[in-house]
């Protein structure tokens, strides 16, 4: 039995809610943009290949809270789709055509309650250990 907790979604960062992933054999690694001979390419450091089928994926930065604590978390693509009820491609198209509607759609789930499974990862960067929390699974409360 895993430990799901009930949280309220307080805020979603509307400036950074997706990234471009590799897409080779389902690879989810963020690609690096490279420019050579005036051509822009996307390169995957994990696959060590130029990605011709790079694909946007959600990575929501959100603030959540239960009765006692508030926490900043990252919400990966699979879980973000359950919150927003649409794929990231749809939302990006909407941002292109009707940005006001897109912002509303992105902020729609704030103040809603969800049952979530949290996972913590430690990343060491310049000798500073940073804890990063992810939502690994999510159900509507
Ligand atoms: Zn890759």
Structure explained in plain terms:
Helix content is 19%, strand content 49%. By secondary structure, it is of the alpha+beta class. The chain has a domain at 5-19 and 58-140: OB fold (Dihydrolipoamide Acetyltransferase, E2P). The strands form 2 sheets. It has a 5-stranded mixed beta barrel. A 3-stranded antiparallel β-sheet has the order 3-4-5, with no helix packed on it. The protein is globular and about 55 Å long.
Could you give a quick summary of the protein structure above?
The chain is an alpha+beta fold and 141 residues long. It has 3 helices and 9 strands; from the N terminus they run βββββββαααββ. The chain has a 5-stranded mixed β-barrel with strand order 1-6-7-9-8.
Topology:
Elements (H helix, E strand, L loop, with lengths): L4 E8 L5 E4 L10 E5 L2 E6 L4 E2 L4 E11 L4 E7 H8 L3 H10 L1 H9 L5 E13 L2 E13 L1
Helix pairs in contact: 2-3
Bound molecules: zinc ion.
The site of zinc ion has 7 residues, from loops.
Largest sheet: number of strands, sense, barrel closure: 5 strands, mixed, barrel
Coarse morphology: globular
Name the helix and strand elements from N-terminus to C-terminus, one letter apiece: EEEEEEEHHHEE
Which regions contain 5 or more consecutive residues with pLDDT less than 50? none
Structural class: alpha+beta
> What CATH architecture label of one domain applies?
Beta Barrel
**Estimated radius of gyration:** 17 Å
How many helices? The count is 3
Reported by name, the CATH topology of one domain is OB fold (Dihydrolipoamide Acetyltransferase, E2P)
| Highest-level CATH class of one domain | Mainly Beta
Give the end-to-end Cα distance, rounded to a whole number of Å. 18 Å
Helical amount: 10-25%
CATH superfamily of one domain: Nucleic acid-binding proteins
Q: What is the number of strand segments?
A: 9
The share of residues in extended strands comes to: over 45%
